[in-house]
Specification:
By secondary structure, the chain is an alpha/beta fold. The protein folds into 2 domains: about 220 residues, P-loop containing nucleotide triphosphate hydrolases (Rossmann fold), CATH 3.40.50.300; about 35 residues, no CATH class. Helix content is about 25%, strand content about 15%. The protein contains 9 helices and 8 strands. Strands 3-4-2-5-1-6 form a 6-stranded mixed sheet. It has a two-stranded parallel ribbon with strand order 7-8. The longest helix is centred in the N-terminal third of the chain and has 14 residues. The C terminus is likely disordered.
């Protein structure tokens, strides 16, 4: 019987899953939070997947149930890079802690979601690829040999850098996949989108004439995040509440008869309308 494959998860009939890559050359930009949240939410809605932790900080690995103690004796993504393990030997069932110790009863498992854990030694991945040119194809080997479910996806959580390891992965993406920068709504962080686009252009140009490598990583989505809004100070009875402008705030100290001193606007130009036009006061995210 002919197997029907959902094109949403296998674009253009390819064998390996659709890929969502969270990357930006910035620490603390909410890449890990966004990647793990979306992977877990998708799995709970019935869309299985595998999330790769490429960061030596191991944040995704820890969030999904595997601290340093739990990882003793287990293989990691670095074993995939070195070619000493295959994907099914490394991937672990994603979980979260509900009890003490490390027994199975101490964890609840997230159905349909696997984790490819990281390790502190991932900081040596660029060197390992530089010393052995064949290892640049490690991620290509995983994709070409993939034989998993027809409706799963790959989620990739990258470190805050664009090195050889990152290149070895994103060169295998095409326009049907999605590079997703998760960036804070702050002018300094938003400016980091420019180096990202330049890096993707470099990857596309370098692989433009190669048939064995897709080499077309594309930003199809953007996640814009913001910290929780400050709590509105208590107001005096009988006086109407007034929402402060999203772009200016008055200093807490002023002398009688002098106007309040505005602090500088910390909102990006794209989000901060001139003259402080009405702006939603809820947390901002972009798709």
């Amino acid at each position: 019987m002919t197997r029907t494959v959902d094109s949403r998860f296998r674009p253009r009939g390819r064998r390996h899953p659709k890929i969502y890559a969270f990357m930006l050359e910035c620490g603390g930009s909410t890449k890990t939070t966004s990647a793990t949240s979306m992977a877990v939410e998708a799995a709970l809605r019935g869309y299985p997947g595998t999330i790769f932790d490429f960061d030596a900080n191991r944040s995704t690995t820890t969030i999904l149930g595997y601290d340093e103690e739990a990882m003793k004796g287990r293989k990691t993504v670095l074993d995939l890079i070195h070619g000493t393990a295959i994907l099914d030997e490394v991937a672990l069932p994603a979980r979260y802690r509900v009890g003490d110790d490390y027994d199975d009863d101490a964890f609840a498992y997230i159905p349909g979601l696997r984790l490819v854990p990281s390790c502190k030694e991932m900081s040596t991945a660029d060197t390992a690829i530089a010393e052995d040119a064949d290892r640049q194809d490690w991620f290509a080997e995983i994709l070409l040999g993939y034989d998993g479910d027809d409706d799963d996806v790959f989620w990739l959580d990258f470190p805050a850098s664009y090195g050889r390891m990152v290149y070895s992965v994103i060169r295998m993406l095409d326009e049907d996949d999605a590079v997703i920068p998760s960036v804070r709504a702050d002018p300094k962080d938003v400016k980091l989108l420019v180096p990202l686009f330049e890096e993707l252009d470099r990857v596309r140009e370098k692989n433009r004439l190669r048939r064995s490598v897709p080499g077309r990583p594309t930003v199809n989505h953007l996640i814009l995040t913001a910290p929780p809004l400050p709590v509105t100070p208590k107001h005096r009875p009988g006086r109407p509440r007034r929402s402060p402008s999203p772009c200016t705030a008055t200093s807490s100290r002023r002398t009688s008869g002098t106007p309040p001193t505005p602090r500088s606007c910390t909102t990006t130009a794209a989000l901060c309308p001139s003259s402080c036009r009405t702006l939603s006061r809820q947390s901002t995210t972009g798709s």
